[in-house]
Amino acid sequence: MKLVRDFIRDSLYTHSKGYFSVTDCVLSPRTPIEFTKLLGYGAYVKTVNNLYKQNSGSWLTPVEVFQPWYSRGIASYILETHRNSQSFAKTPLQIFEIGGGNGTNARCILDYIKEKCESTYENTSYTLIEISDTMSERQSALLEPLHPSKCRFVCNDILEWNSVHQDPCFVVAMEVLDNLPHDKLVRNIEGTSLKGEEWCNFNVKEKDDWFQVEVSDAAQEAGYEEMLEPLTDALAIQTAEYFIYPPERKKEEFPSFIDFIRQPIHSLSRLSRRSIYLDREKIEKGDESSQFRKVFIPTGAVK
């Protein structure tokens, strides 16, 4: 038996059988979409649908759909910040990308930097950290011929990254946080006086009411089996304390634009907590007649 986050990680990334290792999952159009030739939103939807029909089982990311413009916007910010910030004064431009997909984002960013400022490009290094060996090989095949000696390819899980980088740098992580493994917790409300959504207010003193879900290592005839075990996992408890609302934080409001300017990290945290709570109100009520209530928590992101 293994925790849900470990089951998800193995299912996605295990060499030779994980989803990202055996599936051509990230679709990259052969030619960029010519948006100036599309007659409105309907034509855009039709174009994207046709791409999906041609490549069943794959999906499109914003980087791929809006190439090269999406990545050029990122590159413009990186280049301007590197030029104008005292933190980057007289230092080479160093970029780290986590989970770089097909390498399209890196290609477009490096193309832009080379086009706009060749002197900066000459001193640029681009490191791609990729957990899937298949995707890492794909990135290398695309980027090495186009930007030789500019890229370093590290096949490793970013959650296991233990190198300390002291110099100023840029970290790019597209479609990463939402794809990190999560865990599933279940609360037994039998014999309690909890009403409505009160069940999802986590308090470590009431930990004995909660269970961590574990999944069988091998599929049974009816599929994989889930088992409830007492909540003991330290990371799950830490995540639950932060993300599962206690009563006094239940009415926390969405951060304002001014909040984001003044306290960007704190505001992102508030936004994620509030969004998780609202989503839980809408879709995770479950069977009201059941004594068990379930909730998913972002342990991968917290780690």
What does this structure look like?
The protein is of the alpha/beta class and 303 residues long. Strand 3, helix 8 and strand 4 form a beta-alpha-beta unit. Helix 5 crosses helix 6. Helices cover 40% and strands 16% of the residues. The mean pLDDT is 82. Strands 1, 6, 7, 8 and 9 form a 5-stranded antiparallel sheet that branches. Strands 4-3-2-5 form a 4-stranded parallel sheet.
Brief synopsis:
By secondary structure, the protein is α/β, with parallel strands linked by helices. Helix content is 40%, strand content 16%. The strands form 2 sheets. Strands 1, 6, 7, 8 and 9 form a 5-stranded antiparallel beta sheet that branches. A 4-stranded parallel beta sheet has the order 4-3-2-5.
Structural class determined from secondary elements: alpha/beta
Q: Helical residue percent?
A: 25-40%
Indicate the mean pLDDT. 82
What is the makeup of the main sheet? Answer: 5 strands, antiparallel
Rg value = 22 Å
Give the distance, in angstroms, between the N- and C-terminal Cα atoms.
21 Å
Number of strand segments: 9
Q: State the helix count.
A: 12
List keywords for this structure.
303 residues; alpha/beta; 5-stranded antiparallel β-sheet; 12 helices; 40% helix; globular
SSE blueprint and pairings:
Elements: E1 2-3, H1 4-13, H2 19-22, H3 41-54, H4 62-65, H5 69-84, E2 93-98, H6 104-116, H7 118-122, E3 124-130, H8 133-146, E4 151-155, E5 170-173, E6 183-188, E7 210-215, E8 226-230, H9 234-243, H10 257-262, H11 264-283, E9 292-297, H12 299-302
Parallel strand pairs: 2-3, 2-5, 3-4
Antiparallel strand pairs: 1-7, 6-7, 6-9, 7-8
